[in-house]
Write a structure and sequence with these properties.
This protein is an alpha+beta fold and about 260 residues long. It is built from 8 helices and 9 strands. It has helices at about 100-120, 125-145, 150-165, 170-180, 185-195, 200-215, 220-225, 235-245; strands at about 1-10, 15-20, 25-35, 35-40, 45-50, 50-55, 60-65, 70-80, 95. A 5-stranded antiparallel sheet has the order 1-8-3-6-9, with helices on one face. The chain has a 4-stranded antiparallel sheet with strand order 2-7-4-5, with no helix packed on it. A hairpin with a 2-residue loop joins strand 4 and strand 5 (about 45-50). Helix 1 runs antiparallel to helix 2 and helix 4 packs across helix 5 (about 185-195). It is globular and about 55 Å long.
């Protein structure tokens, strides 16, 4: 089991941090917007959105924002409580990695930060569970081996296509056409790299928009569901609750007042 000891979200242009990572404590960061710079053991690392950096205990590092460039990152300090078969936590060198399942890792790390800020019942246990998921995703990708850049580019093109057509029914045939490959190849590659099916990724994109519309618009839940491509309101409720942990109606109180 692993336990988060400190969780924070970096956001801005004036970030600077310098330390020697304590023995037995790992530092995990995920850049979620823009880019920043780290020097780890004297090696310069320009980190961009979608990349993570895992720094082992005893390692000197410092990091800072790039002048005039806004960036955001999640940072978690963690301790391994007992032996776990996680190769990423057994190596002594820093690990820089661009995960194919970035969206899943982003969601889990955001969830950890929310647990840490709100401190609901059992928040430490929930944070441990989410952190274990993050580390398992990372280790699965490391076990699988590096995916060639060309395949990553195919997947990024498919993601962009989905993000432009998420309100529609997106098929593997359409994605195959988008990258010039067969439908089965496109679906298999997407699943291999992202750890999500095409359908799961489409639902995730829809739920991101649903969160915004539920809190920032005055549309009814029925109207939001239809706008996002769900003809059956009960199905929208099921998907939203499964992915977000609560029904969409729970967010209506966060809407700004009508002036």
């Amino acid at each position: 089991m692993v336990t988060p000891l400190e969780v924070h979200h970096v956001n801005g242009v004036g970030w600077y941090e310098e330390a020697v990572q304590p023995q037995g404590i790992w530092r995990l960061s995920l850049v979620t917007y823009g880019k920043c710079v780290y020097w780890v053991n004297g090696d310069k690392q320009i980190m961009e959105k979608g990349e993570l950096l895992l720094i082992p205990g005893g390692t000197p590092y410092y990091g800072k924002s790039i002048p005039t460039v806004t960036h955001t990152q999640f940072v978690i300090l963690l301790r391994q409580n007992e032996t776990a078969e996680l190769p990423a936590l057994e190596q002594r060198e820093p690990l820089r990695h661009k995960p194919g399942c970035y969206e899943l890792i982003h969601q889990r790390m955001k969830g950890i930060q929310q647990q840490w800020e709100e401190c609901p019942s059992y928040y430490v246990m929930m944070s441990q569970a989410l952190l274990m998921e993050v580390l398992i995703y990372i280790n699965r990708e490391l076990d699988r081996g590096i995916i060639p850049p060309e395949r990553h580019r195919y997947v990024e093109r498919m993601k962009r296509y989905i993000e432009q057509h998420y309100r529609e029914k997106v098929t593997k045939e359409e994605l195959g056409d988008e990258i010039g490959k067969s439908p089965n190849y496109a679906a298999s590659l997407f699943k291999t790299v992202t750890n999500q099916t095409i359908s799961e990724y489409v639902h995730d994109q829809r739920m991101k928009r649903a969160l915004y519309l539920l809190t920032e618009s005055q549309l009814s839940i029925q109207e939001i569901a239809e706008f996002l491509g769900y003809r059956d309101l009960s199905y929208f409720y099921r998907i939203f609750k499964r992915l977000m942990g609560s029904p969409p109606s729970d967010l209506l109180h966060e809407r700004p007042p009508i002036i």
